[in-house]
Amino acid sequence: MSANKSPHPLLTILVMTVDCIGHLNACIGTTRPLLDRGHRVIFLLSAQSRGQLLKQGFEEFIVEDEEEDTTTTTKIESGQSYTDDLVTLGIMGPRSSLSLEEKYVKVVELFTTGALAQEARRKSNEVAKKAIEALQPDLIAIDGHLPPAVYFSGIPWVNIVSVTALCHLSNEAEELPPSSSGMSSNSKNQQSETWNRFKRLNLLYRFSSEVNDLHEAMGYPRFPADRLLPYEDALLTVYGHPVEYNWPAIQANEEWFNLEVFNKNERKKISWL
Q1: What's the CA gap between 245 and 255, in Å, rounded?
Q2: pLDDT at 74
Q3: pTM here?
Q4: By the 8 A CB rule, do 155 and 165 touch?
Q5: In angstroms, rounded to a whole number, what is the distance separating the alpha carbons of residues 263 and 259?
Q6: Which secondary structure element, helix H or strand E, spans residue 83, and what is its range?
C-alpha cells in the first residue's frame, strides 16, 4: 500500500441542514473531522448561501430555485427570512405578548404543519432527490427535518441534533422537563397541569399526521407511527450539550452521542461561519 493511500475507503457524505448559521455551524463542527480524514463532505445549500463553505474546505451542491428572483443583487444573511417570520408572528422580539405555550404552537405551525412549511418540505424533498441521484453518497447527515427521499433511499443516515435534545426526548422519561417550558427536572411544578400541557405540546414536535399525509401525497409510505423523525432508524444520533448540565436520562440513552460542543477550537482554527 502506498504511503499516501488511506487504509480505509473514503466516503462521499452529503449534509442536509436548515440554511441558517446556527445549524450550519453545528454541521460544520460535526463533519469537519471527517473532512480532515480525507472524506468528501458536500453541503446541500441554497443559491443564497453559495460560496460560504468552500473556504472551509467543504464542497457545495447548489440547486437553483426556479422561482427565485435572480435579478436582485441584495444578499440576505442565512436564516434572515426565518428570523423575520418569527418576529412578525410575535414568537420573538421585545413586543411579543404571547405566552410560552402560544409561541410553541406557532413555531410548530411555522416550521412543521403550516401551508408554507409543507411547501418547503415538498421542495426540500425534490432537492434531496436531485442531490442523491447526482452524488450517489455513501452517507447522509441530516439536521432539522428528514425528507422521505432520504429515509427511503436505503442510504445510511446520521441524525445531527443542533437544537436541544429535549425537543426529541422530553417524553422519553418522566423526570425530563418538557422542552421550551422553562421548567427544570427539579421544578416544584413537576407534574402540574402546566408541566403536563407542555409534555403534550412536545408531542407536536415528534408526530404529525399532516406531514405524513404529505409523504403519501408525494408517493412515499408514512413514517412509522406518523413520526416526524424516526431517529431510532438513524445510523447514529449526535447532539451538543455541556455534560455538566446534561440530564441523566439523556446521558443514559446509548443511541445518542453527546459531542458537548459542536465547534471545539483546540487548534485555534476558525471552523464556523
Answers
A1: 19
A2: 42
A3: 0.85
A4: no
A5: 9
A6: helix 80-88
